[in-house]
Structure formats: C-alpha cells, structure tokens
Amino acid sequence: MSPHPKTLPPLSAEAETQPLPPDAVGLNADANPVLSVFDFDGTLTRHDSFVPFLKFAFGQRGFNQRILKLALPSLGYLTRRVDRDRLKAQLISTFLKGIEAAWLQQQAEAFCLKSWTRLMRPSGLQAVAGELRSGALVTLCSASPALVLQPFATRLGIRLIGTELEVVDGVLTGRIAGHNCRCENKVLRLESVYGPLNQYRLRAWGDTRGDRELLAAAQDAHWRHFHPAWRRGLGAR
C-alpha cells in the first residue's frame, strides 16, 4: 500500500482539554472575535456523507454484507426502540472494528477527491471562504468521524471538530472515543477547544435536530441557509 499523504491531524482528546490562549484567537479590547461554525452533512453537503463513504471504501459487495447485519438495529430505530446514538455506535462497530486507521485515512483522502464536486454545496463553499476572508476563526463541527472528514477540512483550510474513533496500536476498536458530536456535545466540544463561547461572536450553520443547541448558542444562527427555499421551513430530523 502506498504511503498516506500527510494531512492535518484531527484534534486529539488531549488537545481539546486546553482552550486556545487569547493571543491565538485574536482577542482584543475593541470587539469579540468571530467564531464561525459549520455543520458538515446536509449543511455544506447536499446529503449525508458517511454512508456513501462506507460504500466507497468497502465496495458495494462489502458494504452489502455489513449493512445486512444492521437490519434489526435499523428496525429498532424506526420503531423508536433504538436511539440514534446507539444505532450509530453499531454502524461504526459493524464497519470499522479491526480496520487499520491508516487505511481509513487513505480511503477518506480518495473519497474527498472523487466526491468533492458532486457532494459539496457551492453556496456553502462560498460562505466558508467568505468567513475566512473576514478574519473569523472557522471550524467544522460534525457528528461524522473526524478521520473521515479531515481531508475535507484540510481542503477547506479550516479546523475540524468531529466524532473521534478509538484507535489502539493503529487499529480501530469499533468504538467511539468520548461522545457522538451532536446536540449539546457540539457546544461542549467547541468550549473544550476555544474556551467559553461568550468571549466570541458566534456564527453557526446547521440543518438538523443535532444542530439545535449549537444554533441556540449563536448570536448569528443560520438554519438550512444553503438549502432550497422550500426546505428551510421543514422541521428537523
């Protein structure tokens, strides 16, 4: 297998325990700095990216073999006997347990390269670029695995906060490290990296129930901002 291209690594758990110092975020006496936070799936993208990534990485046959094992948990989710976090944990375990982290990173690089044009919303890309030009701190904050999204964050030129996967000796255990990065955990993860959010002017973009707490914490909240107008009034999934 060819060497994996070097990319910016995802934020480690240790890194998240230390908020960024004031001089690292451009604090000054005149105004609070702007922190611009974008959800990824469905906000910057046209649809979910994780399941398409799994199809890409494992191939249609390998994907089908694994997805069949999730038939009962999926039925439990539809009948509300299994919650979203538990279903996601089972999805990750079924597909990623015993997989080398380096292989997953290589697949993520290839998936980003192949899917970028059809996956990303042009208006979302323009918004990210605009926030960067304005001097704001810009980050993705997503429930998708950070290992999978890192190539996208690198290409966008922004930081990444995502769901961390447990890795032991270079191999994925199939478990999430910490919590699924959605709902209140998005706010907690942001605070662990950037410190108290009240020191910023927080701008946030999201599109589902998992973004509600993030949007509620923001002074400038954007709900389905890049979606067609007819979809912006629909309720969260």
- Name the CATH superfamily assignment of the domain at 23-46 and 100-222: HAD superfamily/HAD-like
CATH architecture level-2 label of the domain at 23-46 and 100-222: 3-Layer(aba) Sandwich
CATH topology of the domain at 23-46 and 100-222: Rossmann fold
* Overall pLDDT confidence: 88
Region (Disordered): 1-24
Keywords: Hydrolase
GO molecular function: hydrolase activity
Protein name: HAD family hydrolase
Q: Can you describe what's shown?
A:
With 237 residues, the protein is an alpha/beta fold. It has a domain at 23-46 and 100-222: Rossmann fold (3-Layer(aba) Sandwich), CATH 3.40.50.1000. 43% of the residues lie in helices and 17% in strands. It is built from nine helices and six strands, in the order αβαααααβαββαβαβ. It has helices at 13-16, 50-67, 71-78, 84-96, 101-119, 122-133, 146-156, 184-194, 212-217; strands spanning 34-38, 137-145, 159-168, 171-177, 201-206, 220-223. It has a six-stranded mixed sheet with strand order 4-3-2-1-5-6. Helix 5 (101-119) crosses helix 7. The longest helix has 19 residues, at 101-119. It starts with 12 loop residues before the first helix and ends in a 14-residue tail after the last strand. The model is unreliable at 1-30 (pLDDT under 50).
